[in-house]
């Protein structure tokens, strides 16, 4: 027979504080409202967010693009440093910048936060960061959910995820079908590690015994500050390129998990190879720090981290100069990364070839030259 508890068990006693959740919503409302455009219908707090898509009537054949992602174990750095207002930029970057790869203009974003204990101020900081990034990329933060999971997550633990939807005219979809031999690759600089490979980075620091508050002269700041550098947002620059009359864009590649070569190969057609010149840029100090500290092989490093390239545009050769200028006008460094050619099946002089990545039976990427670290 089940023993009767001495005191009634409430939801709060079980670890869920609905009042804290309500307070978190109040603290984040203004930040969320700040992302809303004239297309948003209704306010914050509804069961579902509404957005007016009447403009889609002007499309001949509108296609909806969707993406969902999280920020991986970078949240562990945010939690360890008790800094939570930057991780939202990483989330938006991981999600919305995948949407723009196909040429789509983002319409809306939603978020999900799971935590062991709702601390209103912490949740509000996370959402404020998401809202700030949504405002930068012109995407309404249309809805979200904060879930309290006591017993599953520790009181100071949380994870974040998000999803976005965009639209593109069917005739304007970017991708491998447009890429041709003779096209060139335009690199857009990363702001740092972005939000991939943190399991490797954290392991390297742990084995080396480095704390997050350790100041590194080469970085000009502490390890923790460097690791929390927000992911650069490329959507505005990419949409500028798509809309520029002097630039013809064939494809974009968002350099996330798997590194530059694996992600670039996804947007190349079978039969073509992209020659990437490793010497065309200087690898930022944080990547060299990870490599040297953990004696990580370059082959593993380049297959895990972005090494300083966060987005790549594939354009015709006669669009190269205009593309570089347009990206730089957005405050992002850009340069000629390489060229696309017919795939002869050969690795080339000291070249390393990557193909068949991410389940895509597409083109190949040939990495040539040597990385520069200074």
From TrEMBL:
It catalyses: 2-formamido-N(1)-(5-O-phospho-beta-D-ribosyl)acetamidine + ATP = 5-amino-1-(5-phospho-beta-D-ribosyl)imidazole + ADP + phosphate + H(+). This is Phosphoribosylformylglycinamidine cyclo-ligase. Its EC number is 6.3.3.1. Its main location: cytoplasm. Keywords: ATP-binding, Cytoplasm, Ligase, Nucleotide-binding, Purine biosynthesis. Residues 64-168 form the PurM-like N-terminal domain. Signal peptide: none annotated. It is found in: Cytoplasm. InterPro entries: PurM-like_C_dom (IPR010918), PurM-like_C_sf (IPR036676), PurM-like_N (IPR016188), PurM-like_N_sf (IPR036921), PurM_cligase (IPR004733). Residues 180-345 form the PurM-like C-terminal domain. Pathway: Purine metabolism; IMP biosynthesis via de novo pathway; 5-amino-1-(5-phospho-D-ribosyl)imidazole from N(2)-formyl-N(1)-(5-phospho-D-ribosyl)glycinamide: step 2/2. Belongs to the AIR synthase family. It is an enzyme of class 6 (ligase).
């Amino acid at each position: 027979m089940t023993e009767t508890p001495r005191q009634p068990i409430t939801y709060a006693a079980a670890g869920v504080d609905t009042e804290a959740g309500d307070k978190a919503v109040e603290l984040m409302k203004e930040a969320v409202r700040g992302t809303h455009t004239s297309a948003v219908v209704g306010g914050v707090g509804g069961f579902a967010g509404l957005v007016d898509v009447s403009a889609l009537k002007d499309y001949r054949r509108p296609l909806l693009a969707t993406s969902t992602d999280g920020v991986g174990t970078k949240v562990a750095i945010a939690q360890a440093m008790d800094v939570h207002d930057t991780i939202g930029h990483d989330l938006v970057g991981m999600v919305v910048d995948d949407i723009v790869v196909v040429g789509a203009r983002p319409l809306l974003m939603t978020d999900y936060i799971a935590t062991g204990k709702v601390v209103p101020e912490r949740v509000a900081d996370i959402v404020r960061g998401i809202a700030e990034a949504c405002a930068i990329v012109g995407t309404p933060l249309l809805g979200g959910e904060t879930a309290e999971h006591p017993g599953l997550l520790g009181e100071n633990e949380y994870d974040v995820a998000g999803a976005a939807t965009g639209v593109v005219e069917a005739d304007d979809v970017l991708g491998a079908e447009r890429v041709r031999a003779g096209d060139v690759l335009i690199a857009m600089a990363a702001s740092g590690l972005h939000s991939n490979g943190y399991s490797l980075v954290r392991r390297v620091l742990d084995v080396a015994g480095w704390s997050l508050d350790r100041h590194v002269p080469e970085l000009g700041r502490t390890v923790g500050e460097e690791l929390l550098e927000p992911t650069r947002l490329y959507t505005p620059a990419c949409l500028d390129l798509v809309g520029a009359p002097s630039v013809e864009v064939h494809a974009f590649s968002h350099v996330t998990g798997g590194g530059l070569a694996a992600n670039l190969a996804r947007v190349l057609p079978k039969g073509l190879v992209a020659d990437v010149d490793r010497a065309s840029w200087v690898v930022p100090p944080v990547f060299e720090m990870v490599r040297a500290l953990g004696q990580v092989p370059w082959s593993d490093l380049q297959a895990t981290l972005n090494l300083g390239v966060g987005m790549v545009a594939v354009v015709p050769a006669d669009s190269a100069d205009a593309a570089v200028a347009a990206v730089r006008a957005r405050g992002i460094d850009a340069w000629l990364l390489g060229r696309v050619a017919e795939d002869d099946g050969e690795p080339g002089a000291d070249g390393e070839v990557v193909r068949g990545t991410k389940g895509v039976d597409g083109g190949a990427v040939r990495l040539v030259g040597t990385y520069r670290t200074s």
